[in-house]
Write a structure and sequence with these properties.
The chain is of the alpha/beta class. The chain is built from five helices and five strands.
């Protein structure tokens, strides 16, 4: 999976770090449907520098990634001054209480064990990053 740049838009920017192509496509589709601009990164080894460069408003981060684990990406992001306040939603197939504790201690704002209801992810994203306002529609020149 390749990294996609964020479009130049006023929409809140979300970086999705997920190596499962189908999961990434589904999450991207739904985040964009809610009005967010989404960039996708498919491996942990490039995620830290890419996220720092993109300066997103929120990160959705898988734990199991090639190159560098999501938990290590999370730790490294929290060490960077300008990345410390970026909300991070950790998504993972790991579902033990100790896994949740580790992710939250490392700096995750939300921990979701896969499979999770899409509505739960979208609710978490909306709480951390309010949904953008719908685009304004120009008034019609025609009278009814």
């Amino acid at each position: 999976m390749t990294m996609l740049g964020l479009p130049l838009t006023s929409a809140p920017r979300v970086v999705l770090v997920e190596d499962d192509r189908n999961m990434a496509l589904m999450l991207t589709y739904n985040l964009e449907a809610f009005g967010y601009a989404v960039a996708t990164i498919g491996e942990g080894s490039t995620a830290v520098d890419a996220i720092a460069g993109l300066e997103p408003d929120l990160v959705v981060l898988d734990w199991h990634l090639p190159g560098l684990s999501g938990i290590e990406v999370l730790r490294q992001l929290r060490l960077r001054l300008h990345c410390r306040r970026i909300p991070i939603v950790m998504v993972t197939g790991r579902n033990g209480a100790d896994d949740r504790a580790r992710a939250l201690a490392a700096g995750a704002d939300v921990f979701l064990a896969k499979p999770f209801p899409l509505a739960t992810l979208m609710q978490s994203v909306t709480v951390l990053l309010p949904r953008p306002a719908p685009p304004e529609v120009a008034p019609s020149r025609h009278r009814a």
